[in-house]
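Internal tracking record. Fields below are filled automatically when a chain is submitted to the structure queue. Please do not edit lines marked as system-generated. If the sequence contains nonstandard residues, flag them in the REMARKS field before resubmitting.
Queue: standard
Priority: normal
Entity type: single polypeptide chain
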Amino acid sequence: MSSENADAVGEHDEPGHDQPVWDVVVVGAGPAGASAAYAAAVAGRQVLLLEKSELPRYKTCGGGIIGPSRDSLPPGFELPLLDRVHAVTFSLNGRLTRTRRSKRMLFGLINRPEFDAGLVEQAQKAGAVLRTGATVSRVEQHGPAVPDRRTVAVVLADGETVLARAVVGADGSASRIGAHVGVKLDQVDLGLEAEIPVPATVAEDWAGRVLIDWGPMPGSYGWVFPKGRTLTVGVISARGEGAATKRYLEDFIARLGLAGFEPAISSGHLTRCRSDDSPLSRGRVLVCGDAAGLLEPWTREGISFALRSGRLAGEWAVRISEAHDAVDARRQALNYAFAIKAGLGVEMGVGRRMLAIFERRPGLFHAAITGLRPAWRAFADITRGSTTLAGLVRTHAVARRALEALDRRAEPSEPSA
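SYSTEM-GENERATED OUTPUT FOLLOWS
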Protein backbone atom coordinates (compact mmCIF):
# COMPACT_ATOMS: atom_id res chain seq x y z
CA MET A 1 0.00 0.00 0.00
CA SER A 2 1.54 3.28 -1.05
CA SER A 3 1.83 6.35 1.20
CA GLU A 4 0.71 9.74 0.07
CA ASN A 5 2.89 12.81 0.32
CA ALA A 6 1.88 15.00 3.23
CA ASP A 7 4.00 17.92 1.98
CA ALA A 8 1.35 18.81 -0.58
CA VAL A 9 -1.14 19.93 2.05
CA GLY A 10 -0.40 23.63 1.82
CA GLU A 11 -3.83 24.76 2.94
CA HIS A 12 -2.87 23.87 6.52
CA ASP A 13 -0.25 26.59 6.69
CA GLU A 14 -0.72 28.88 9.69
CA PRO A 15 0.42 32.51 9.94
CA GLY A 16 3.86 32.78 11.48
CA HIS A 17 5.27 29.42 10.36
CA ASP A 18 5.51 27.49 7.15
CA GLN A 19 4.64 24.07 8.59
CA PRO A 20 1.22 22.49 7.88
CA VAL A 21 -1.10 22.03 10.84
CA TRP A 22 -3.40 19.04 10.51
CA ASP A 23 -6.83 19.00 12.08
CA VAL A 24 -6.26 15.48 13.40
CA VAL A 25 -3.15 13.31 13.47
CA VAL A 26 -3.70 9.62 14.25
CA VAL A 27 -0.74 7.54 15.43
CA GLY A 28 -1.01 3.85 14.51
CA ALA A 29 -2.86 2.27 11.58
CA GLY A 30 -4.42 -0.77 13.23
CA PRO A 31 -8.21 -1.14 13.52
CA ALA A 32 -8.44 1.59 16.19
CA GLY A 33 -6.29 4.09 14.30
CA ALA A 34 -7.88 3.41 10.92
CA SER A 35 -11.35 3.79 12.46
CA ALA A 36 -10.36 7.08 14.10
CA ALA A 37 -8.88 8.39 10.84
CA TYR A 38 -11.98 7.35 8.92
CA ALA A 39 -14.35 9.00 11.41
CA ALA A 40 -12.42 12.28 11.36
CA ALA A 41 -12.01 12.26 7.58
CA VAL A 42 -15.68 11.64 6.79
CA ALA A 43 -16.42 14.67 9.00
CA GLY A 44 -14.48 16.71 6.45
CA ARG A 45 -11.31 17.28 8.48
CA GLN A 46 -7.72 17.14 7.26
CA VAL A 47 -6.37 13.91 8.74
CA LEU A 48 -2.88 12.41 8.76
CA LEU A 49 -2.49 8.73 9.67
CA LEU A 50 1.03 7.78 10.82
CA GLU A 51 2.20 4.14 10.83
CA LYS A 52 5.70 2.95 11.66
CA SER A 53 5.48 -0.22 9.52
CA GLU A 54 4.80 -0.79 5.87
CA LEU A 55 1.34 -2.19 5.12
CA PRO A 56 0.14 -4.88 5.09
CA ARG A 57 2.00 -6.14 8.16
CA TYR A 58 1.55 -9.20 10.38
CA LYS A 59 -0.22 -8.91 13.72
CA THR A 60 -0.51 -11.62 16.35
CA CYS A 61 -4.26 -12.08 16.65
CA GLY A 62 -6.84 -14.87 16.50
CA GLY A 63 -8.77 -12.84 13.95
CA GLY A 64 -12.31 -13.50 15.16
CA ILE A 65 -14.84 -10.93 13.91
CA ILE A 66 -17.84 -10.98 16.24
CA GLY A 67 -21.06 -9.03 15.76
CA PRO A 68 -19.96 -5.79 17.49
CA SER A 69 -16.89 -5.70 15.21
CA ARG A 70 -18.96 -6.26 12.08
CA ASP A 71 -21.42 -3.57 13.10
CA SER A 72 -18.62 -1.02 13.65
CA LEU A 73 -17.10 -1.31 10.17
CA PRO A 74 -17.29 1.56 7.64
CA PRO A 75 -20.31 1.37 5.31
CA GLY A 76 -19.62 -0.85 2.33
CA PHE A 77 -16.53 -2.49 3.86
CA GLU A 78 -16.13 -6.03 2.52
CA LEU A 79 -14.91 -8.37 5.23
CA PRO A 80 -12.09 -10.60 3.92
CA LEU A 81 -13.52 -13.68 5.62
CA LEU A 82 -11.50 -16.89 5.41
CA ASP A 83 -14.11 -18.97 7.23
CA ARG A 84 -17.60 -18.67 8.71
CA VAL A 85 -18.03 -20.33 12.09
CA HIS A 86 -21.17 -22.40 12.72
CA ALA A 87 -19.83 -24.74 15.43
CA VAL A 88 -17.73 -24.46 18.59
CA THR A 89 -15.98 -27.34 20.31
CA PHE A 90 -15.37 -26.71 24.01
CA SER A 91 -12.95 -28.67 26.19
CA LEU A 92 -11.74 -28.38 29.76
CA ASN A 93 -7.95 -28.68 29.49
CA GLY A 94 -8.41 -31.41 26.89
CA ARG A 95 -11.22 -33.23 28.74
CA LEU A 96 -15.03 -33.28 28.62
CA THR A 97 -15.05 -32.24 24.97
CA ARG A 98 -18.38 -31.24 23.46
CA THR A 99 -19.36 -29.47 20.23
CA ARG A 100 -22.30 -27.06 19.98
CA ARG A 101 -23.65 -26.15 16.53
CA SER A 102 -25.73 -23.35 15.09
CA LYS A 103 -27.66 -23.04 11.82
CA ARG A 104 -26.81 -19.34 11.72
CA MET A 105 -23.24 -18.07 11.48
CA LEU A 106 -21.74 -17.26 14.89
CA PHE A 107 -18.79 -15.16 13.73
CA GLY A 108 -16.22 -14.87 10.96
CA LEU A 109 -12.46 -15.33 10.76
CA ILE A 110 -9.95 -13.04 9.07
CA ASN A 111 -6.21 -12.55 8.74
CA ARG A 112 -5.20 -9.26 10.30
CA PRO A 113 -2.84 -8.03 7.54
CA GLU A 114 -5.63 -7.97 4.94
CA PHE A 115 -8.24 -6.73 7.42
CA ASP A 116 -6.10 -3.86 8.71
CA ALA A 117 -5.01 -2.84 5.21
CA GLY A 118 -8.64 -2.76 4.09
CA LEU A 119 -9.60 -0.46 6.95
CA VAL A 120 -6.76 1.90 6.10
CA GLU A 121 -7.92 1.98 2.48
CA GLN A 122 -11.37 3.02 3.69
CA ALA A 123 -9.82 5.85 5.71
CA GLN A 124 -7.86 6.97 2.64
CA LYS A 125 -10.97 6.91 0.47
CA ALA A 126 -12.63 9.16 3.05
CA GLY A 127 -9.76 11.62 2.64
CA ALA A 128 -7.18 10.67 5.26
CA VAL A 129 -3.52 10.83 4.22
CA LEU A 130 -1.40 7.78 5.11
CA ARG A 131 2.28 8.00 5.91
CA THR A 132 4.11 4.75 6.62
CA GLY A 133 7.63 4.30 7.97
CA ALA A 134 6.91 7.07 10.50
CA THR A 135 7.89 6.13 14.04
CA VAL A 136 6.60 8.54 16.69
CA SER A 137 8.93 9.12 19.62
CA ARG A 138 6.78 11.54 21.65
CA VAL A 139 4.15 14.25 21.63
CA GLU A 140 4.55 17.76 23.05
CA GLN A 141 1.77 20.13 24.08
CA HIS A 142 4.09 22.86 25.32
CA GLY A 143 7.56 24.02 24.34
CA PRO A 144 9.44 25.55 21.40
CA ALA A 145 8.06 23.07 18.84
CA VAL A 146 4.48 24.14 19.62
CA PRO A 147 3.51 27.40 17.88
CA ASP A 148 0.38 28.06 19.98
CA ARG A 149 -1.74 26.50 22.70
CA ARG A 150 -4.17 25.05 20.18
CA THR A 151 -1.46 22.90 18.65
CA VAL A 152 0.16 19.57 19.51
CA ALA A 153 3.61 18.61 18.20
CA VAL A 154 4.07 14.98 17.18
CA VAL A 155 7.82 14.32 17.15
CA LEU A 156 9.11 11.52 14.92
CA ALA A 157 12.13 9.34 15.62
CA ASP A 158 14.22 11.23 13.04
CA GLY A 159 13.47 14.55 14.73
CA GLU A 160 10.81 15.76 12.31
CA THR A 161 7.82 17.46 13.91
CA VAL A 162 4.21 17.15 12.72
CA LEU A 163 1.66 19.65 14.03
CA ALA A 164 -2.00 18.98 14.78
CA ARG A 165 -5.04 20.50 16.47
CA ALA A 166 -5.85 17.09 17.97
CA VAL A 167 -3.98 13.80 18.26
CA VAL A 168 -5.35 10.27 18.59
CA GLY A 169 -2.99 7.64 19.99
CA ALA A 170 -3.73 4.19 18.57
CA ASP A 171 -0.17 2.87 18.64
CA GLY A 172 -0.72 -0.45 20.36
CA SER A 173 -0.32 -1.90 23.83
CA ALA A 174 3.20 -0.44 24.25
CA SER A 175 1.91 2.99 23.27
CA ARG A 176 4.13 6.06 23.52
CA ILE A 177 1.01 8.19 23.31
CA GLY A 178 -0.52 6.17 26.14
CA ALA A 179 2.56 6.90 28.24
CA HIS A 180 2.09 10.62 27.53
CA VAL A 181 -1.55 10.43 28.61
CA GLY A 182 -0.66 8.37 31.69
CA VAL A 183 -2.66 5.22 30.94
CA LYS A 184 -2.72 2.89 33.95
CA LEU A 185 -3.01 -0.86 33.54
CA ASP A 186 -4.92 -3.30 35.71
CA GLN A 187 -4.26 -6.60 33.92
CA VAL A 188 -1.49 -7.80 31.62
CA ASP A 189 -1.63 -11.16 29.84
CA LEU A 190 0.67 -13.09 27.53
CA GLY A 191 -0.68 -14.56 24.30
CA LEU A 192 1.28 -17.09 22.23
CA GLU A 193 0.20 -18.12 18.77
CA ALA A 194 1.23 -20.33 15.86
CA GLU A 195 0.01 -20.12 12.25
CA ILE A 196 0.12 -23.77 11.13
CA PRO A 197 -0.35 -24.75 7.46
CA VAL A 198 -2.11 -28.12 7.24
CA PRO A 199 -3.06 -30.58 4.48
CA ALA A 200 -6.46 -30.25 2.84
CA THR A 201 -7.82 -33.30 4.71
CA VAL A 202 -7.00 -31.68 8.08
CA ALA A 203 -8.35 -28.30 6.99
CA GLU A 204 -11.64 -29.90 5.93
CA ASP A 205 -12.10 -31.37 9.41
CA TRP A 206 -11.88 -27.88 10.94
CA ALA A 207 -13.87 -25.93 8.33
CA GLY A 208 -16.63 -23.90 9.97
CA ARG A 209 -15.66 -25.01 13.49
CA VAL A 210 -13.45 -23.49 16.19
CA LEU A 211 -12.11 -24.99 19.40
CA ILE A 212 -11.99 -23.22 22.75
CA ASP A 213 -10.10 -25.03 25.52
CA TRP A 214 -10.28 -23.80 29.10
CA GLY A 215 -6.64 -24.03 30.16
CA PRO A 216 -4.62 -25.35 33.11
CA MET A 217 -3.61 -21.98 34.63
CA PRO A 218 -6.18 -19.68 36.27
CA GLY A 219 -7.82 -17.52 33.62
CA SER A 220 -6.09 -19.24 30.71
CA TYR A 221 -7.60 -20.67 27.56
CA GLY A 222 -6.57 -21.89 24.12
CA TRP A 223 -8.14 -21.66 20.68
CA VAL A 224 -8.03 -23.11 17.19
CA PHE A 225 -9.35 -20.85 14.41
CA PRO A 226 -9.45 -22.32 10.87
CA LYS A 227 -8.48 -20.04 8.00
CA GLY A 228 -8.52 -22.09 4.84
CA ARG A 229 -5.39 -24.23 4.71
CA THR A 230 -3.99 -22.62 7.88
CA LEU A 231 -4.99 -23.14 11.50
CA THR A 232 -4.38 -20.32 13.95
CA VAL A 233 -3.58 -22.03 17.26
CA GLY A 234 -2.98 -19.96 20.38
CA VAL A 235 -3.16 -19.73 24.15
CA ILE A 236 -3.34 -16.86 26.61
CA SER A 237 -2.59 -16.59 30.31
CA ALA A 238 -1.51 -14.04 32.91
CA ARG A 239 1.89 -12.44 32.41
CA GLY A 240 4.46 -13.97 34.74
CA GLU A 241 3.47 -17.47 33.66
CA GLY A 242 5.67 -17.42 30.56
CA ALA A 243 7.16 -20.90 30.87
CA ALA A 244 3.83 -22.45 31.79
CA THR A 245 2.08 -20.63 28.93
CA LYS A 246 4.66 -21.89 26.44
CA ARG A 247 4.28 -25.42 27.80
CA TYR A 248 0.50 -25.15 27.51
CA LEU A 249 0.78 -24.17 23.83
CA GLU A 250 3.17 -27.05 23.10
CA ASP A 251 0.95 -29.57 24.89
CA PHE A 252 -2.15 -28.13 23.22
CA ILE A 253 -0.67 -28.46 19.72
CA ALA A 254 0.51 -32.01 20.46
CA ARG A 255 -2.87 -33.00 21.89
CA LEU A 256 -4.55 -31.78 18.70
CA GLY A 257 -2.28 -33.97 16.57
CA LEU A 258 -0.67 -30.93 14.94
CA ALA A 259 2.87 -31.26 16.30
CA GLY A 260 4.10 -32.75 13.03
CA PHE A 261 3.27 -29.62 11.02
CA GLU A 262 5.77 -26.76 10.88
CA PRO A 263 4.30 -23.37 11.87
CA ALA A 264 4.67 -20.68 9.23
CA ILE A 265 4.72 -18.06 12.01
CA SER A 266 5.19 -18.33 15.75
CA SER A 267 4.62 -15.15 17.71
CA GLY A 268 3.63 -13.66 21.03
CA HIS A 269 2.19 -10.44 22.39
CA LEU A 270 1.03 -8.83 25.62
CA THR A 271 -2.54 -7.69 26.07
CA ARG A 272 -3.15 -4.90 28.56
CA CYS A 273 -6.41 -3.85 30.25
CA ARG A 274 -6.79 -0.36 31.69
CA SER A 275 -7.70 0.26 35.32
CA ASP A 276 -11.05 1.92 36.03
CA ASP A 277 -9.43 5.23 36.95
CA SER A 278 -7.01 5.33 34.02
CA PRO A 279 -7.14 8.56 31.97
CA LEU A 280 -8.17 8.49 28.32
CA SER A 281 -6.89 11.93 27.39
CA ARG A 282 -4.43 14.68 28.19
CA GLY A 283 -4.98 18.12 26.75
CA ARG A 284 -5.69 17.70 23.03
CA VAL A 285 -4.50 14.09 22.96
CA LEU A 286 -6.85 11.07 23.12
CA VAL A 287 -6.04 7.35 23.27
CA CYS A 288 -8.11 4.42 22.02
CA GLY A 289 -7.88 0.68 21.40
CA ASP A 290 -4.88 -1.14 22.85
CA ALA A 291 -3.14 2.18 23.50
CA ALA A 292 -5.89 2.95 26.01
CA GLY A 293 -5.95 -0.59 27.45
CA LEU A 294 -9.43 -1.16 26.03
CA LEU A 295 -10.31 -4.83 25.60
CA GLU A 296 -12.60 -7.37 27.21
CA PRO A 297 -10.77 -8.73 30.29
CA TRP A 298 -12.13 -12.28 30.26
CA THR A 299 -11.81 -13.28 26.59
CA ARG A 300 -9.24 -10.55 25.83
CA GLU A 301 -11.24 -9.75 22.69
CA GLY A 302 -9.87 -6.50 21.35
CA ILE A 303 -10.90 -5.97 17.73
CA SER A 304 -14.42 -4.76 18.52
CA PHE A 305 -13.07 -2.54 21.30
CA ALA A 306 -10.52 -1.08 18.88
CA LEU A 307 -13.11 -0.38 16.18
CA ARG A 308 -15.64 1.14 18.54
CA SER A 309 -13.23 3.24 20.60
CA GLY A 310 -11.41 4.34 17.44
CA ARG A 311 -14.60 5.63 15.89
CA LEU A 312 -15.44 7.57 19.07
CA ALA A 313 -11.91 8.95 19.32
CA GLY A 314 -12.06 10.20 15.74
CA GLU A 315 -15.43 11.87 16.30
CA TRP A 316 -14.35 13.61 19.49
CA ALA A 317 -10.95 14.55 18.03
CA VAL A 318 -12.88 16.55 15.44
CA ARG A 319 -14.54 18.51 18.24
CA ILE A 320 -11.23 19.01 20.02
CA SER A 321 -9.66 20.29 16.81
CA GLU A 322 -12.37 22.97 16.72
CA ALA A 323 -11.89 24.00 20.36
CA HIS A 324 -10.56 27.55 20.71
CA ASP A 325 -9.14 27.21 24.21
CA ALA A 326 -7.92 24.63 26.71
CA VAL A 327 -11.18 24.65 28.66
CA ASP A 328 -13.26 23.71 25.62
CA ALA A 329 -10.72 21.07 24.53
CA ARG A 330 -10.83 19.57 28.01
CA ARG A 331 -14.62 19.51 27.93
CA GLN A 332 -14.65 17.59 24.65
CA ALA A 333 -12.02 15.15 25.94
CA LEU A 334 -14.12 14.48 29.03
CA ASN A 335 -17.12 13.82 26.79
CA TYR A 336 -15.04 11.22 24.92
CA ALA A 337 -14.06 9.58 28.22
CA PHE A 338 -17.70 9.52 29.33
CA ALA A 339 -18.77 7.88 26.05
CA ILE A 340 -16.09 5.20 26.45
CA LYS A 341 -16.88 4.47 30.09
CA ALA A 342 -20.65 4.40 29.54
CA GLY A 343 -20.31 1.75 26.84
CA LEU A 344 -17.05 -0.18 26.64
CA GLY A 345 -16.24 0.53 30.29
CA VAL A 346 -19.44 -1.20 31.44
CA GLU A 347 -18.62 -4.21 29.26
CA MET A 348 -15.13 -4.35 30.77
CA GLY A 349 -16.62 -4.30 34.25
CA VAL A 350 -18.76 -7.35 33.52
CA GLY A 351 -15.76 -9.00 31.85
CA ARG A 352 -13.69 -8.52 35.00
CA ARG A 353 -16.38 -10.25 37.05
CA MET A 354 -16.50 -13.10 34.53
CA LEU A 355 -12.72 -13.48 34.64
CA ALA A 356 -12.66 -13.54 38.45
CA ILE A 357 -15.22 -16.34 38.46
CA PHE A 358 -13.55 -18.20 35.58
CA GLU A 359 -10.16 -18.11 37.31
CA ARG A 360 -11.60 -19.95 40.32
CA ARG A 361 -14.20 -22.21 38.73
CA PRO A 362 -13.56 -22.88 35.02
CA GLY A 363 -15.56 -26.10 35.33
CA LEU A 364 -18.69 -24.07 36.07
CA PHE A 365 -18.37 -22.22 32.79
CA HIS A 366 -17.69 -25.39 30.87
CA ALA A 367 -20.65 -27.23 32.40
CA ALA A 368 -22.97 -24.27 31.77
CA ILE A 369 -22.05 -23.54 28.17
CA THR A 370 -21.94 -27.18 27.08
CA GLY A 371 -24.93 -28.39 29.09
CA LEU A 372 -27.38 -25.51 29.47
CA ARG A 373 -29.28 -24.20 26.46
CA PRO A 374 -29.67 -20.62 27.87
CA ALA A 375 -25.90 -20.34 28.39
CA TRP A 376 -25.18 -21.53 24.85
CA ARG A 377 -27.84 -19.18 23.49
CA ALA A 378 -26.22 -16.27 25.38
CA PHE A 379 -22.81 -17.17 23.91
CA ALA A 380 -24.29 -17.26 20.41
CA ASP A 381 -26.14 -13.95 20.89
CA ILE A 382 -22.95 -12.23 22.05
CA THR A 383 -20.83 -13.53 19.19
CA ARG A 384 -23.49 -12.60 16.63
CA GLY A 385 -23.83 -9.12 18.09
CA SER A 386 -27.45 -9.43 19.24
CA THR A 387 -26.26 -8.35 22.68
CA THR A 388 -23.10 -7.80 24.73
CA LEU A 389 -21.97 -9.16 28.09
CA ALA A 390 -23.09 -5.93 29.70
CA GLY A 391 -26.36 -5.86 27.78
CA LEU A 392 -27.11 -9.44 28.75
CA VAL A 393 -26.65 -8.72 32.44
CA ARG A 394 -28.47 -5.39 32.27
CA THR A 395 -31.58 -6.52 30.38
CA HIS A 396 -32.00 -10.18 31.34
CA ALA A 397 -32.90 -10.85 34.98
CA VAL A 398 -32.04 -14.55 34.60
CA ALA A 399 -28.54 -13.72 33.35
CA ARG A 400 -28.06 -11.21 36.16
CA ARG A 401 -29.13 -13.72 38.79
CA ALA A 402 -26.92 -16.40 37.22
CA LEU A 403 -23.89 -14.09 37.34
CA GLU A 404 -24.62 -13.24 40.97
CA ALA A 405 -24.92 -16.95 41.77
CA LEU A 406 -21.62 -17.62 40.01
CA ASP A 407 -20.07 -14.78 42.01
CA ARG A 408 -21.13 -16.47 45.23
CA ARG A 409 -20.05 -19.95 44.16
CA ALA A 410 -16.65 -18.66 43.09
CA GLU A 411 -15.94 -17.01 46.44
CA PRO A 412 -13.30 -18.85 48.51
CA SER A 413 -14.94 -20.85 51.28
CA GLU A 414 -14.40 -19.76 54.88
CA PRO A 415 -11.97 -21.95 56.85
CA SER A 416 -13.67 -24.10 59.45
CA ALA A 417 -13.20 -23.24 63.12
